[in-house]
TrEMBL record:
<dbReference type="InterPro" id="IPR000073">
    <property type="entry name" value="AB_hydrolase_1"/>
</dbReference>
<dbReference type="Pfam" id="PF00561">
    <property type="entry name" value="Abhydrolase_1"/>
</dbReference>
<comment type="similarity">
    <text>Belongs to the peptidase S33 family.</text>
</comment>
<dbReference type="InterPro" id="IPR051601">
    <property type="entry name" value="Serine_prot/Carboxylest_S33"/>
</dbReference>
<dbReference type="GO" id="GO:0016787">
    <property type="term" value="F:hydrolase activity"/>
</dbReference>
<feature type="domain" description="AB hydrolase-1">
    <location>
        <begin position="76"/>
        <end position="439"/>
    </location>
</feature>
<dbReference type="InterPro" id="IPR029058">
    <property type="entry name" value="AB_hydrolase_fold"/>
</dbReference>
<keyword id="KW-0732">Signal</keyword>
<protein>
    <submittedName>
        <fullName>Alpha/beta hydrolase</fullName>
    </submittedName>
</protein>
<keyword id="KW-0378">Hydrolase</keyword>
<feature type="signal peptide">
    <location>
        <begin position="1"/>
        <end position="22"/>
    </location>
</feature>
Amino acid sequence: MRLASLGAVVALVLVPVPVAHAVPSIEWATCGPERPGFECATFTVPLDHDRPRGATTSIALTRKPATDQARRIGSLLFNPGGPGASGVEYTWAWGNRMSAGTQGRFDVVGFDPRGIGRSDPLRCFANDQERAAFLAAGPVFPYEPARERPFFDRYRSLASKCDKPIARHMSTADVARDLDLLRRALGDRKITYFGHSYGSYLGTTYANMFPNNIRALVIDGVLNPELWSSGRQIESDRVAARKVLDEFFRLCDEAACAFGPQSKQRWQTLLASVRAKPITLNGEVWTYDRVIEWGLFAGFASESWTDVAALLDQLSDASSAAPAASEPVYDNFFDANLGNMCADIEFPRTFDAYRAVSRYAAAGSEFGPYWWWSTSACSDWPVNEDRYTGPWRARTSAPVLVVGTYYDGSTDFAGAQAVAEQLPNSRLLAYAGWGHIAYRRNQCAIDYIHAYLLDGSLPAVGTVCAANPNPFLDAASQLAERDFRRSTGPVASR
């Protein structure tokens, strides 16, 4: 599963000569009155980096200019994850905070990676309604054996629906090459980069492809690239979310939350009930797969645990009820997520192989099949010939700061530990709490990240930021990121 498509191999030993890339210029302009303090631009890059003078694609950019121009260090490039999340949108949301935290000494630059958001977006459907109809035609994931084959066939059909020129050039290696061109166009001798979640995989890929171009690189919510690139991420996904949910149950009972007492037993009873018969609550039908999806949300946002507990309590109480029977801007998160993931990873090709892995995933926890089955869209999707699958052990020109959270349902702590071991010039910073991405919720981790970005200073070996207070007891935490919600569709963001 880890073999790249390398094409013909000549028996002679030939050293490839890189093709010189001209560095495009960037013309910045104000984003408009609705985005005060931010500038926007479009950056043109080769569609295929092996053919730099051929077809091109465009990358949407935004930046929050440094407020301390006298002490300006350079550009801080930011990717929020996904794959499929808009770096432009997230920079508008987080750019002021990052700028203030780094004393206004960076231009904070966000970008939509190729094929995503405003960057020549991959579109598999004519409109949002067509995508919604596709998703509504089946469960979030198949939790009954009879539904597995129809689900697999339906998702497999996406390969032909999504077969667009940009889809053939959406690997993370392509994005890393764009990133290095962007670094040069911004005038930075070496890169300063901050990546969350899937953005950690982009950062790790860049660090291994361009190890001598690192000024400072932070990755937070870390994917193990050896698992991700080989299609074995399910080894983590099958257990990570359940680890967080067990903490949710423990702290819920400790705080006497709405779903307690004995919240773990109530969860198991709820799953058995909804699997036998859907639950109707306030006119909305909840099936087994939707309850699993809501439980999975607990692994992302600990500040929303009271909301999760309240809904689970209502569903549990309602479990005896009878079951009920102008176009917006196109959101291409679902399409782009598949476009990037299927370009990077060679998944199994047959239904029997998918069904076998699903049994393995389910043995890990009830969340395993949720993560696994959506990848069946990749079963008939050609991987990108330019993808990067390792090695992952480059010594970078500056240390890499690797940040991991003990209880993260999307990118488990083992991923951060693995990358810290793989990269010899790295330092691991741990957050002993709950939730996806420490930078979103823990001041200790935030302070260490800002200090490192500014001057390269690293936390002491073995540093662990203490957990925030019990989310069920800490009222202040409920105010943080209350608008945090996963993107629509059955593919959770990284």
